[in-house]
Q: What sequence folds into this?
């Protein structure tokens, strides 16, 4: 992942269909993007995104959290809207405490939830939707 | 990648923040999703998405195209809006001819364009924006 993304504005001839693209990351390189608390504590790292194949929206960012020396990490899907990308840090800020993350829906590293129904997504959305705003 | 995604509607108690999620694919598994022409000809396979880190939108789908027995493939970034996900085929349909794809911006497999400025994205958007509608 490039750590030197800059926010350039487009110049020159522009197609009417063109939108200003910046801060792009390839999906095969999202692994390892850091996730921080608002106070700057590193909470974990991104493992992958869950992308809606029809709309192209990132629905969840799955973060590896916890564990020691890489042992026993759990995977926490975070709804996209809980994250804010911080260019200076080169990672995401999530407005959650460590305790709120520890209590959140999660699964073991070698497992995968059933994303084909909307039930698991509902659990995740309900949990994060019900948290007090920080 | 699961080939048996079904379009389930949510049921049961729903959080007001919940949206119906379905057809999710993890970003580390997008590689290999097939891309077809409208007539059903397989044109190539997805290698990765380019995701906007701030908005979470998939800006481009990078497709491996051409080559023989895996040799000499070129990578073609396709704007998200040129693609339609077809659940039955388990892949994307792109409303382009093989000739239009062959003439499109592309790069060699071991290269990477400069996505940090918006110039390369502009080239891609301008090319696809200027094609006659099929």
A:
């Amino acid at each position: 992942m490039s750590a030197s993304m800059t926010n350039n504005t487009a110049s020159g001839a522009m197609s009417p269909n063109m939108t200003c693209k910046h801060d792009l990351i390839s999906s095969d390189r999202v692994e390892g993007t850091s996730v921080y608390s608002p106070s700057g504590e590193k909470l974990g790292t991104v493992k992958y995104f869950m992308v809606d194949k029809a709309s192209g929206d990132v629905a969840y960012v799955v973060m590896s959290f916890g564990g020691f020396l890489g042992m026993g990490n759990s995977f926490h899907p975070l709804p996209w809207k809980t994250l804010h990308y911080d260019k200076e840090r080169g990672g995401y800020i999530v407005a959650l405490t460590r305790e709120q993350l520890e209590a959140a829906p999660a699964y073991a590293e070698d497992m995968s939830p059933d994303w084909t129904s909307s039930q698991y997504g509902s659990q995740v959305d309900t949990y994060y939707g019900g948290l007090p705003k920080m």
